[in-house]
Design brief:
This protein is an alpha/beta fold. Helices cover 61% and strands 9% of the residues. It is found in: Cell membrane. Its main location: membrane.
Length: 609
């Protein structure tokens, strides 16, 4: 349902205001707050695993310095069993830790996906007219999917590695503080390098995700049924393939740069850490030759074992820091959507109407898609449609006809005046009341890739098969559905392309009939029908409209002749109003439209003439 006169630019993320929360670590950590009990268990497992793992080098020292030299077989066996036991316990704790942390991480991702989807459901129609579908899909799929490693394992890895580093350093100090000082001399340099790498990868990741979103949008648009038809009929298949290849090529470059960012610097850290045992042996030897205190073989081996044990969590900790810097770019893109202002929201104390009579009033209604653009789309509209009455709105393309109809179900909110339903401003009604009260059948019919029955039942989930069939008969589409091989179980295809335009239009009318709303908005609902089908469906619509308030937007003037009142819009204002006969007698704008319509000219040409 694209407005007929929006002229809106493509959506871009709004600039961040000082009071808008950034994608910082505290805000990310708040996502885990509902699962703090499970995370506490993970913390206990991490602590226990770290304490058990650092016990092994001390057992090794006793084996080398006491059990073997003194020939104490019993002590040797006990110490060996202790080393085996620490390995078993560490593995068991690691499995339990991974299970709980992965579960928590997946729940956080589920919460994020649901929050973004719910936020988008609340966004006004204008947002979707300015935003490419592929961009929205990329935020939900690629960006949240790219955070999987961060939310499922990185947080736990951070705590685990930090605990392991602290416990190992304490154990190293207890064994030999001088060698510990030698081992930690280069630590500040390593931290500085990792922070540099993290910032570099964050910038590249932001560009990479934007490129992925652009490629997803290209795929969504060009590989849809409409895109394939357009590309082939215009002979642009090779051109579209070339455009996609260029988008993919840019992504290749960004992926390589992201993978290689800081790789040599991180490799240097790995080389230095791996060379540390040789440096420790050298330092111990120099200290001994210089007359310093001797270090026992057991202490030296145990210390080197601890130092090597420090290597894995230390490097992992630095890599985790880099990963978190990278993930901030993804969180930033998600938070951009979560922080979008919701222009159309339910009031704090919404009014709920149990029974709707159907009176619709437009009271001095003004509307502009861009208040700073100058001329409003609608200007000073005053119209009343009594319960059960019918209003027809006609005019040239861009006169504001569809926009006027969208104000009733609150697809947009007025910028001046008000629209009321049974005397209540629609902005004060709860969304359920509006959805039950107002049914919309537009020119652009959307059908899900599901069965005919499921598409109809979307309007009324608890509808029986008999009710579905009755609605289809009223819309003059039952015979066609029944003739299909699978009947009402037939899949309609992507966007309903298994059906003709007229058939889809009748399915949409059947869906609205099934919902049975007291107020009907027919936005050029019969424009896609041939004359014969239009007459059949028009009869069904007239039967449905009996006793219901109906607002019809139409180019074909033959569909609005019997309306209680006809309003002619011109540049967003009411140029003429009255019944069909009254407007013909006036010989003005409407009469000219009727003459041109009778001459068989295209509706758009007739409207402009």
């Amino acid at each position: 349902m694209r407005p007929d006169d929006t002229g809106q630019p493509e959506w871009n993320p709004p600039p961040r205001t000082p009071d808008q929360p950034p994608a910082d670590v505290p805000r990310i950590l708040r996502l885990f707050r509902p699962y703090r009990g499970r995370l506490a268990v993970v913390g206990l497992l991490v602590g226990a695993s770290s304490l058990v793992s650092v016990a092994s080098p001390f057992l090794l020292r006793e084996i080398l310095d006491t059990a073997i030299p003194e020939g104490r077989t019993g002590l040797l066996s006990l110490l060996a069993l202790g080393m085996i036991g620490t390995a078993v316990l560490t593995s068991v704790f690691g499995v339990l830790q991974t299970l709980i942390s992965t579960t928590v991480g997946q729940r956080v991702m589920h919460d994020l996906r649901t929050a973004v989807y719910a936020q988008l459901q609340r966004m006004p129609l204008a947002f979707f007219t300015r935003t490419r579908t592929g961009e929205v899909q990329s935020r939900i799929a690629n960006d949240i999917g790219g955070m999987q490693a961060t939310v499922t394992s990185t947080a736990t890895s951070l705590v685990s590695n930090l605990t392991a580093v602290v416990a190992t350093v304490v154990a190293m100090l207890a064994l030999e503080w001088r060698l510990t000082v030698v081992s930690l001399l280069l630590l500040p340099v390593f931290v500085w390098i990792s922070r540099r790498v993290g910032r570099e990868r964050k910038k590249i990741t932001t560009r990479r995700q934007k490129q992925m979103a652009a490629m997803a949008a290209t795929v969504t648009e060009s590989l849809s049924v409409s895109g394939i038809l357009l590309g082939r009929t215009m002979g642009r298949a090779d051109s579209l393939t070339g455009a996609f290849a260029r988008e993919s090529e840019r992504l290749v470059d960004l992926e390589v740069r992201s993978s290689m960012a800081g790789r040599w610097r991180m490799a240097t850290i790995g080389i230095v850490m791996a060379a540390m045992p040789a440096l420790l042996y050298w330092a111990a030897g120099i200290a001994l030759q210089g007359g310093g205190p001797a270090i026992s073989i057991g202490t030296l081996v145990a210390f080197v074992s601890l130092q090597q044990g420090l290597f894995r969590p230390a490097v992992s900790l630095l890599s985790t820091g880099v990963q978190m810097q990278t993930s901030l770019a993804l969180f930033q893109r998600i938070f951009e959507y979560l922080d979008l202002p919701v222009d159309i929201s339910e009031p704090e104390r919404p009014v709920r109407l149990e029974a709707v009579a159907g009176e619709v009033r437009f009271e001095k209604v003004d509307f502009a898609y861009d208040p700073d653009a100058g001329r409003p789309t609608l200007d000073g509209i005053d119209v009343t449609v009594p319960p059960g009455g019918s209003l027809a709105v006609v005019g040239a393309t861009g006169s504001g006809k569809s926009t006027l109809s969208y104000l009733v179900p609150r697809l947009y909110d007025v910028t001046g005046g008000r629209v009321t339903l049974d005397g209540v401003d629609v902005r004060d009604l709860d969304f359920d009341t509006l959805a039950r009260a107002v049914g919309v059948v537009s020119q652009e019919v959307y059908l899900f890739h599901a069965s005919v029955a499921d598409n109809l039942r979307f309007a009324k989930p608890d509808a029986t098969d008999a009710e579905i069939e009755a609605a289809a008969r009223a819309a003059q589409i039952h015979d066609h559905i029944a003739a299909l091989p699978d009947g009402y179980d037939t899949l309609v295809g992507e966007r309903g392309y298994r059906f003709s335009g007229g058939e889809k239009q009748r399915l949409a009318i059947a869906r609205t009939i099934l919902r049975d709303p007291p107020v009907l908005i027919l936005d050029e609902a019969t424009s896609a029908l041939d004359t014969r089908t239009e007459q059949a469906v028009q009869g069904a619509v007239e039967a449905l409209s009996a006793g219901r308030t109906t607002i019809t937007i139409a180019h074909r003037l033959s569909t609005v002749r019997d309306a209680d009142e006809i309003v002619v819009l011109e540049a967003g204002r009411i140029a003429e109003r009255g019944t069909h006969a009254e407007l013909l007698d006036a010989g003005g704008r409407y009469a000219a439209l009727v003459r041109r319509d009778a001459e068989g000219r295209p509706p758009a040409e007739a409207a402009v003439g």
